[in-house]
Amino acid sequence: MAVSANLLAVPVAAPLLTAALILLFARWGGRRRIRHQIALTTLALCLNLAATAILFQATAGRGERFVLQLGDWSAPFGITFYGDGLSATLLLLTALVALAVYPFAVATIDYHRDRMGFHPLYLFLLMGVNGAFLSGDLFNLYVFFEVLLMASFVLLTIGAQPAQTNSGIRYVVLNLLASTIFLIAAGVAYGTLGTLNMAQIAQRLTMASPAVRTVFAGLLLVSFGSKAAIFPLFFWLPASYHTPPPAVTALFGGLLTKVGIYTLFRSFTLFFPELLVSWQPILLTISGATMLVGALGALAQPGIRRVLSFHIISHVGFMLMGLAVAQSGNRLAVGFGLGAAVIYLCHHMIIKTALIMAGGAVELHMGSDRLASIGGLVTRQPLLAFLFFMSAISLAGVPPFSGFVSKLSLLQITLDTRHWFVSGISLFASLLTMINMMRLWRESFWGDYNRPSRVPVRILQSRIRQQLMLTPVAVLVLLSLALGIWGGPAFQLSMKVAQQALDREAYIEAVSPSSPISTPGAEQPLVSLQAYFSDHPKAISGMTARPLLESR
Amino acid sequence: MPELYLRLLNRILTPILLLLAFYLLFRGHNLPGGGFIAGLMAASAIQLQILSRGHRRVRRTFGPYLNNGIGLGLAVAICAGFAGLLEGTFFKGIWFNLDLPLMASIKLGTPVVFDLGVFLVVASFTTSYLLGLSRVSDTAAHRRDEAASRSGYSTAGPDQADRGVATGTRAES
């Protein structure tokens, strides 16, 4: 089946069009209009899943690459969408997570949020995430970052509880700071390289001076790392994830940090593959610290959702560790580390979402998620207890679930490349994860039945809502089980994805086949820089200016 | 009374602003201008109405349709993108000449439709933002007056009362 590149537009256009239609007809339909919104949203989510599945089959399965130049404007001038195995994998998992969280959200979101536009916001968030995975130039990446930041900020603060507003402000300020740093990085790229198209940046960076490369890489590492919640930059995540309704936390936990991870993967494989070797100590240190801080921080947390949000940070460290060893397989195929990171990413997105939803169900049953005051739910909700247990041991890495396969492959590559210290830390973090998961399960399900809140929960008295809450968790746990059982084929697929992502010549080739080295836009900033320096001869004595000019 | 001057100014400026917005909108696909700036200009005309006639009257006129305007604009813009699929690529511009009897021919195409969508989104969004701001400043001024007179009379409009009930229902879930 031939797949057209226009398919790349669907993950962005379908949520946007549906959200627009919902807004357009929001006034009509009386009391049934929420139902119409739910039906439309479900339709868009299914369409998105179908499109991304076709895309995944074509890219990861058959090794194709798709480039969509919007409006047929060629690469450096128009908007470029690029889809290869890595982006298609993330798109498919995003579609899965979004579709899985949606029934849970429908069952648990209150009428006030329904009326305030929860459903179109859900779609806008999905559109922002999808667009970030697809965009082929830095400026549109920034735009989609902002789309998803604004949508998630409103989803976080809608309802206007004081705690929500507090966490929302911390979330948006820290994320805007990261966006600003990213904008500065884009400015550096445009000022020194004369382009924002990612393929052209990759092309021209090989000729740029080391100072430019280092500054650009450092700025990108800080901004994307902050989006991904790596070690010293993760503070926005635990500050905000425990305040919105559980459905929103599940969506955020499944999607948001993965955008940062994807952009880190993409920028390091495409722009600076050699920095994966020379900066390896830095990346490994950051990943070790992230794993350790996340797991240790989770030990100290009093509530289910706080524990789980610290575990997201710990897992980001694991994925970063895979990226750090991506170029250094001495006797294995290059890209083993990245392949392991990709399969870890799949495992993490699936099971983290399931676990946050199960934890959210516990919270809704108990009226609180403070571990000290709840307990004994196993007799009242045996199915929930079972599902929670299954996802918890999958997260901790017990076979036959996906956690085992992904952790094993990551450990294998770090041991093979003789990074003993980091592999030790990752084992220790896994042990801490296991302890934490058992703590969560024991505190919330074992012991005497103890429900701190006296307020009856209305939404749990309806049988269909209970089913809507638990079915997606069950589906995700089954997916994790399947990923664990068919670990071999899944790993081969993710290796293919990783090798495709590491092949930067093919990326450049696909986006701009004619590869115009000197376009008019490229010359202009450099010419004006030279004019500036000839007018201001003293400025040339600055350390950074000289190599920039000599590199031409 | 400053509103008198604003009302006089309003009668002169509003048609000019709207005409200028229209002009910028339909030259934007080739020349400086376009949907975004035309939308801002139309919204500034509406802001002039808010200043001169008070936000309540403007809200009665435009308020109920603003969300629909945003939705309609987004839908129109994205449909202009889908029209490009007829020529093979998403967002590809399709152009045709419209021959008018008196003037020369006008070039029209899907980018104009896209600009129209952007115009609707920007104008509706900015208007709803301005109306929200004017309500906030209005209630703040009201509270000041209230504190000054110490009347103790409740000024919570239907919106505030509504929000209070809704947050109350949230607390139990």
Q: What do you see in this structure?
A:
The complex is a heterodimer of chains A (552) and B (173). Chain A has 552 residues and is mainly alpha-helical. Chain A is 72% helix and 1% strand. Among the domains of chain A are: 276-503, no CATH class; 520-552, no CATH class. Chain A contains 23 helices and two strands. A two-stranded antiparallel ribbon of chain A has the order 1-2. Chain B has 173 residues and is mainly alpha-helical. In chain B, strands 1-2 form a two-stranded antiparallel ribbon. Helices cover 73% and strands 5% of the residues of chain B. Chain B has one domain. Chain B has helices at residues 2-27, 35-53, 55-62, 66-83, 110-149, 158-172, and strands at residues 95-98, 106-109. The chains are: A mainly alpha (552), B mainly alpha (173). At the A-B interface, helix 1 and helix 4 of A face helix 4 and helix 6 of B.
Given helix and strand content, the structural type of chain B is mainly alpha
Q: Helical proportion of chain A?
A: over 70%
Q: Sheet with the most strands of chain A?
A: 2 strands, antiparallel
Tell me the series of helices and strands of chain B, N- to C-terminal: HHHHEEHH
- What is the radius of gyration of chain B computed over CA atoms, rounded to a whole number of angstroms? 21 Å
What is the straight-line distance between the termini of chain A? 46 Å
List low-pLDDT spans of chain B: 152-173
Major beta sheet, strand line-up of chain A: 1-2
N-end to C-end Cα span of chain B: 50 Å
Q: What coarse outline of chain B follows from CA principal-axis ratios?
A: elongated
Strand order of the largest sheet of chain B: 1-2
Radius of gyration of chain A, Cα only, in angstroms? 24 Å
Oligomer: heterodimer
